[in-house]
Amino acid sequence: MYERMEQVVAMEEKDVTEPSAPAEFGEALSVVALEHMTGPCRGTVTWLWQPEVYLRLGPYGHMHITEGPMNEAREGWVARICRDGNGFNISAVDDQPLWINRKQVDSKVLEHHDTIEFGNNGPMSRCYLYDNQHPMRETVTDIIGDTLAYFRNSRQPFFNRLMRSAGQLARRLAGETTLLFRFSVIVALAFLGWFTYQQGRIDTLLTQQVESGAAELEAFSSRLTRAREEALTPEDLTALSSELRDELATTAERVTDIERRSEASANVIADAMPSVLFLQGSWGFREKDGERMLRIVVDENGNPLPTASGVPRLSLDGTGPVAERQFTGTGFMVGDNGALVTNRHVGLPWEYDANVKMMLTGNLEPIMTRFIAYVPGVPDSIPVEFVAGSDDADVAILRQTETVLQIKGLRLAGAPPDPGEEIIVMGYPTGLRSMLAQAGERFLEDLRKTGETGFWSVAERLALSGRILPLASRGIVGGTSGETIAYDAETTHGGSGGPVLDINGEVVAVNAAILPEYGGSNLGVPVAKVRELLERAKMN
After folding, report:
1. One GO BP annotation here (predicted)?
2. Residue 450 has what pLDDT?
């Protein structure tokens, strides 16, 4: 609503005896408001309800208004506004220029939002016509102010005042504000509803991700528990010795048979053995933006706190041991640049663990906590690190973090083998268990006495006693392609990453997968993929 401002325009003396009175209360007579946009009176509003008024411009552009018949002795009158029914008509006086909406007129019925220019260089005013069709619109501030005034000054009970104030505010905002304001409120409410809905969906997704991450964390903890349960104990050593005694005899017979059947094969095995390394590692999760590791949560006595499922609870705030997954594998040296070849799933073991993929999308990242290699006949381990991995084959390149040993590398074959050709697969199948089976009763008895049955300590004892030696198995190539080589040489898990050699002692493939459903057939990555990766890593 336009505020009733103090009239800047001067009211001229009138010849009428008495001004026209406003309409009686309840009558629906129209009212004109002229908002002065230019000239000395700009920013003010003149309200007109009289039957007839005359408008005159002063020497400095001020607007003067006189009610009633024009005094003929006066000059400078520019327009006459008179009531016409429930409307108003404006007309020019003495052929003075009168412009309405950029059109010169002599007379016109005023309409809501007409723009009037008095004279060729006179001031401009905007016409607002208020009647039943154009009710006055108050500002939101006025409506809220009226509501607060009622609430403060009413003598009704508090609850009645509150309810009436709320009803009055809602009714007036809905009925007395502009259409633009109401439309804006509807749009804002719709946007708020949409935003609330989307926020709810996001919260639901985040909850699902948190629950899924918690489930993956619990699954990771469960696998750690199983790994600890499967760790060697003194009692296991006795059972292991008994269970694997026959397998050891069979393995020895197989190696003896190979040596007996072919002196060339025996030479291949003997020459390649120092280049086939036993890999041992562990990995866990670290905070992406910090140094905290995922640890087992323990109580004040150092005992792990279990989850509802009974597995140890894991947290970045834990104070117990780091939650680690342990693994073993096989690798072999090639060339003279210290390149150590293995499988990608050995170099980056977390990539092939589907159960922890959800954990990788959160605030955790996998990290190798320890990665070492043992060279046959060498008592000390050497630290190794990941260099590069193939994107389309299960092969990776490792290297010593420091050049500790100069190890002879195997040669890479220039062409893939043909079906029917003989090959030899070397590696460490079943990891520590196969080497313990070969170590003999006395060695196992010593471990039982000392209690050194941990993952790392067993490997150290095997290396110190010179018992880390790869196994060899002979087979026939069943088929070749650009992606894989199939053969029937016997091996199992733990032998992944070992070399597949031809009768000349050259590497034709990297042992990668076991297919028990095909009678124990295995798959290897062709040496061409190894050569491509070496060139990419600039270690050829």
Report:
1. proteolysis
2. 84
Structure tokens at 174: 């809905």
Side-chain-facing half-sphere of 334: CA atoms under 13 Å = 30
Please report which confidence band the pLDDT of residue 454 belongs to, taking 50, 70 and 90 as the band edges. Answer: confident
Q: Look at residue 354 in the predicted model and tell me its pLDDT.
A: 67
Among 447, 438, 460, which Cα is nearest to 234's? Answer: 447
User: According to the model, what pLDDT value does residue 245 have?
Assistant: 59
Neighbours of 423 (CB within 10 A): 22
List 342's β-bridge partners, or say none.
396
Residue spans of the domains in the chain: they are: 10-130, 140-177, 211-230+262-428+468-536
Distance of alpha carbon 342 from alpha carbon 279, whole angstroms: 9
pLDDT bracket for residue 440 (50, 70, 90): confident
Q: Which residue type is seen at 75?
A: E
Q: Which amino acid is at 93?
A: V
Least confident of 216-225, 364-373, 394-403, 500-509: 216-225
Q: Which residue has the tokens 């790994």?
A: 227
Q: What is the mean pLDDT of residues 142-153?
A: 80
- Which residue is it, tokens 């061409």? 528
Which residue in 248, 243, 231, 235 sits closest to 439, CA to CA?
A: 248
Query: Using only C-alpha atoms, what is the Rg of the chain?
Result: 48
CA distances in angstroms from 65 to 30, 53, 74, 355, listed in the order given = 19, 7, 13, 88
Question: The domain 10-130 is classified under which CATH number: 2.60.200.20, 3.50.50.60, 3.20.20.70, 3.10.290.10?
Answer: 2.60.200.20
Banded pLDDT at 222 (limits 50, 70, 90): low
From residue 384, give the alpha-carbon distance in Å to each of 106, 247, 349, 500: 100, 31, 15, 22
CATH code for the domain defined by 211-230+262-428+468-536: 2.40.10.120
Question: Among candidates 88, 93, 85, which has minimal Cα distance to 64?
Answer: 93
Residue 270 near residue 286 (C-beta atoms within 8 A): no
Closest among 49, 53, 17 to 33, alpha carbons compared: 49
pLDDT, the chain, mean = 81
Helix (H, G, I), strand (E, B) or coil at 245: helix
Q: Could you tell me which residues are beta bridge partners of residue 516?
A: none
